[in-house]
Structures are given as C-alpha cells and as structure tokens.
Amino acid sequence: MSMRKPLQKPPGYRETGIPIQRPPQSSFYPEKNNSRRRSFCCCCCCYFCIFLIFLILLLIAAGAILYLWFDPKLPIFHLKSLEFTKFNITDSPDGPKLNAQATVSVELKNPNKQLKIIYGKTNIELKDEDGVNLGNGNVPGFVQGTKNVTVVKFGIKMNELLYVENVAKVRDGLKNKSLKVSADVGTGFGIGFSGWKSETIGVRVSCGGLSLKQMENGAAPKCQITVLS
Q1: N or C: less crowded end of the chain, CB within 10 Å?
Q2: What dihedral angle (degrees, nearest 10) is formed by the CA atoms of 64, 66, 70, 74?
Q3: Contact of 134 with 162, CB cutoff 8 Å
Q4: Which domain holds residue 87?
C-alpha cells in the first residue's frame, strides 16, 4: 500500500481558528499631541489678553465716571492778613540780629461739593523781596469739610542774624510799611469721601508781591500753587 504525500499549503494560506498576530500599535503620536497643546495654549493666551483689555477698559471707564461725578478741585489759598507784633534789630557780637514775631492769616477754600480735604502739617515762611528770612511757623494737620472756607492763623517767630547790608532796608521798610513780604506755604493734602481717603500730594503755595501798607488797606496778594513731584 503506497503512502500519499501530504499536500503542500499554497502561499498565503492560514489555518482557520488561529488568531492573527498583528504588530503592536504605537500609543505615542507626537505631532498630533503637540498640535493640540499649541492650540490650547493659543486659546488661553487669546482669552487672557481679551480679559486683560476688557479689565483695563473697565477701570478707565470707572475712573472717568468717578472723576466726572466728584469733579475734584484743588483748594484755593489767600493771604488774608500779616501783622508784626514784635520787630527788633539788635547788635550782637556776631552781627545784627533780628528778633521778630508776627501773626499771619491764610484763608483756605474747599470748592468741592462732595469731597473733603485732609491736610497734613502745614508750614509757612516769610521773606522780603530780596529773600531775607523774616520768620516761620507751622500748624498741625486738620480736615476741611465740603464747600468750606477756613482761616488758619500762624504764629511766626524769628531770632536769627541778618546780613549788615539788609538791616537798613528791613528796618526802614517796616517803619513806613513799604516792606514787601511774601509767604511760602508748604503742605500736603489728600481728598476724602465717607471712609475713603486718597494718597497725599505735596504742594507749595507762594503768595506775595505786595507791601505791608497795601495789605493793610485790604489788597490781597496773588497766590500760586505748585504741585510737588
């Protein structure tokens, strides 16, 4: 009995029931993930920029509305009166010495309808037209109400040496009241509303250009206010 040779399997033949082995799939897709990440970052940046611009515009609009509503104004200064109660020039071993006392009244006006003004310590210095120091004084800080006019009185004292060339002019000017005196006021103030208070800004107010005689007759020296940086 002859043995039959098994039939050869044709190319591409596979047994039924045997699972097909597939090559493992890679779980890493660098290009696709990087693209998604870049897209997400761009969206975040765009939304953040839009939010920031909106916030800035909102703050500007709120500030403009508040400014128009409150309409803040600087205080108005007037030098009301100046009176020397003591003025002596004596000789000392070191040279001529000025011993003076004066009372200066400065009118402060708050033109704001809704904002009070909060003043810090206020200093005043008197000088003649040549810059000779005639005394200084100060008052503590205070609060000025809305639409208010306050007269602040300064007590001035001076006990210092004078240059010889200034003695005659100062003495004669005081006697005949032709001495031109200027007052420099230095202070800091802020504005307040209810329980809110702004930052303090420094100002210097210069009032002068008139003689003692003119001020005695009711003339008011012009005052210029300078905001200090």
Answers
A1: N
A2: -60
A3: no
A4: 76-227
Rounded distance between C-alpha atoms, residue 173 and residue 130, angstroms: 12
Is the model's pLDDT at 2 over the cut of 60? no
Alpha carbon distance 126, 147 (integer Å): 29
**3-class secondary structure, 93:** coil
Whole-angstrom distance, CA of residue 183 vs CA of residue 191: 24
Cα(213)–Cα(216) distance, integer angstroms: 5
How do residues 127-179 score in pLDDT, each as one tens digit? Answer: 988 888 899 999 999 999 999 999 999 999 988 888 877 888 888 888 898 99
**Which CATH number does the domain housing residue 205 bear?**
2.60.40
Rounded CA separation 115/184 (Å): 25
**Number of CB atoms found within 10 A of residue 77's CB:** 20
**189-209 burial code (b ≥16 CB/10 A, e <16):** bebbeeeeeeeeeebebbbbe
Task: Kindly state whether residue 7 falls inside one of the protein's structural domains.
Answer: no
Q: Which two tokens mark 147? A: 């639409």
Tally of domains within the chain? 1
**Separation between Cα atoms, residue 111 and residue 115, nearest integer Å:** 9
Question: Residue 58 falls within a domain, yes or no?
Answer: no
Q: Is residue 52 part of a domain?
A: no
pLDDT tens digits for range 55-82:
999 999 988 887 788 888 999 999 998 9
* 198 within domain boundaries: yes
